[in-house]
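STRUCTURE:
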């Protein structure tokens, strides 16, 4: 019996892979090597990267693009812009056959707490440059031979993001978050599942290496490649080179600052340097050196492949306020669209944005705290307002501090309109009933009032109450119509309070009214 960790799939896994391969292989939109099959069943060229792509950006242009999406972090954006421009200018030279034989790839390590915009920085750059982007957490990977992901899958994910275009994927960006979680523990002996082994495997990728386009244990993928080769008489690339793939890693690096401070303190004592502060006005991470990463738990070879170090600083309340007010993609745009889908205009006042920023700052999760606070503040409004007559409202500090009270004020202000709106739902039910069954229901004012009372008591929509009360009326009314020819029926308060009893009385009475001889 095969061990579940020896890389050999079980018969059940092989069957699932084969079924998946067959579905993909005969899908009308499946990409083939150099071609794809369109909806008409004809082959057409697959999206290419070799023609038409060129990189001619300057660092200032890249930073200006990042400024649109990420607030603050100016120094980080400058460093990142220079590194990315250097890298992709080298890519351009390589594609033109003028590659420098001594160029060292400028892989990047981002340091900073959660929610400061690290992922957003890299994703925004990838969109600007036009290359595929893959993000993963370092904690999902493991050393070969243990349960966990294979780091080479990151490269294969780039190919999938590039719609099967290997040429495009080999210039993509791989972003690995929580890289600090794979730092090897001090004095750790034995096989390190989440530390040195993963670092070693990632080190191979960050250098110049070939990665199989299809995983060795991907039986379905291997068979698909064989079938494509037989059908087309040729196959696409079997490997992808990582020479020009840019690697960016990031993490919060809790505890690294203490290591830096300790080194600086020892330097002060040893050399009596009064001009050097332990942290000073600048965070200690600004002084981080390779030796600090090594003491933190990284292999020298691994950290040496990450020459560009970008420090992202915690966000202040003012930063969070600016994110809400000016950043493209601000979360308030999401709420404007959400309310707008129901015809409700929401206007954010500066006092409301400031209060949201203050509450988000208390969450200590950076920009992610904005989502937490906004969802808490607008949850009941999003649930209640679409069913009311409210068509606009303002978000100020009072609303953020007490959403329930603000909702009550809005409902009281529009109470009359809301009652009219709910009454229209009752008459809408009558119109739907006529359209479906050809019978006309006329609701008296007392009937409408009774339905609205019942809806308020059960906290349901009037339309829902009508459907429940009169769910069987079409059967009895059709019988009455056949007996008497009656097409219009008046629903009064008694019919709302005792619908089954009233309908039975109407049916019995209809037999007495049946014309003689029928």
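SEQUENCE:
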């Amino acid at each position: 019996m095969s061990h579940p960790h020896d890389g050999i799939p079980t018969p059940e896994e092989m069957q699932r892979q084969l079924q998946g391969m067959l579905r993909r292989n005969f899908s009308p939109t499946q990409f083939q090597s150099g071609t794809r099959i369109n909806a008409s069943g004809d082959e057409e060229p697959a999206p290419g990267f070799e023609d038409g792509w060129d990189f001619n950006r300057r660092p200032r242009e890249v930073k200006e693009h990042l400024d649109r999406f990420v607030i603050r972090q100016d120094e980080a954006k400058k460093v990142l812009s220079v590194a990315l421009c250097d890298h992709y200018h080298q890519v351009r030279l390589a594609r033109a056959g003028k590659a420098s034989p001594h160029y060292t790839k400028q892989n990047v390590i981002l340091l900073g707490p959660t929610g400061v915009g690290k992922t957003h920085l890299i994703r925004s750059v990838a969109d600007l440059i036009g290359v595929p982007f893959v993000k993963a957490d370092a904690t999902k990977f493991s050393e070969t031979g243990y349960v966990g992901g294979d780091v080479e899958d990151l490269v294969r994910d780039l190919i999938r993001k590039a719609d099967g275009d290997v040429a495009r994927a080999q210039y993509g960006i791989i972003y690995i978050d929580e890289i600090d979680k794979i730092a090897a523990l001090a004095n750790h002996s034995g096989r390190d599942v989440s530390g040195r082994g993963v670092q070693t495997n990632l080190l191979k990728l960050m250098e110049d290496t070939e990665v199989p386009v299809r995983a060795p244990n991907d039986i379905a993928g291997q068979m698909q490649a064989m079938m494509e080769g037989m059908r087309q008489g040729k196959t696409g690339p079997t490997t992808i080179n990582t020479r020009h793939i840019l690697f960016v890693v990031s993490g919060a690096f809790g505890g690294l600052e203490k290591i830096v401070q300790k080194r600086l303190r020892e330097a002060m004592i040893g050399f009596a340097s009064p001009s050097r502060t332990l942290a000073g006005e600048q965070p200690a991470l600004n002084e981080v050196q390779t030796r600090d990463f090594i003491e933190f738990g990284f292999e020298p070879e691994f950290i040496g492949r990450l020459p560009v170090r970008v420090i992202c600083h915690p966000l202040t309340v003012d930063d969070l306020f600016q994110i809400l007010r000016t950043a493209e993609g601000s979360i308030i745009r999401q709420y404007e669209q959400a309310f707008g889908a129901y015809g409700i205009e929401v206007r954010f006042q500066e006092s409301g944005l400031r209060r949201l920023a203050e509450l988000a700052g208390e969450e200590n999760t950076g920009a992610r705290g904005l989502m937490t606070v906004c969802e808490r503040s607008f949850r009941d409004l999003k649930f209640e307002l679409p069913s009311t007559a409210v068509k606009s409202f303002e978000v100020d500090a009072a609303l953020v501090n007490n959403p329930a009270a603000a909702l009550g004020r809005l409902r009281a202000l529009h109470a009359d309109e809301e009652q009219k709106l709910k009454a229209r739902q009752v008459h809408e039910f009558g119109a739907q009933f006529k359209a479906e069954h050809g019978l006309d229901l006329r609701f008296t004012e007392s009937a409408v009032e009774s339905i609205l009372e019942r809806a308020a008591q059960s906290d349901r929509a009037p339309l829902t109450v009508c459907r429940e009360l009169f769910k069987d009326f079409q059967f009895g009314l059709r019988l009455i119509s056949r007996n008497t020819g009656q097409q219009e029926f008046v629903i009064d308060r008694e019919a709302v309070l005792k619908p089954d009893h009233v309908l039975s009385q109407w049916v019995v009475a209809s037999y007495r009214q049946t014309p003689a001889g029928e």
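REMARK: Residues 415-437 form the longest helix (23 residues).
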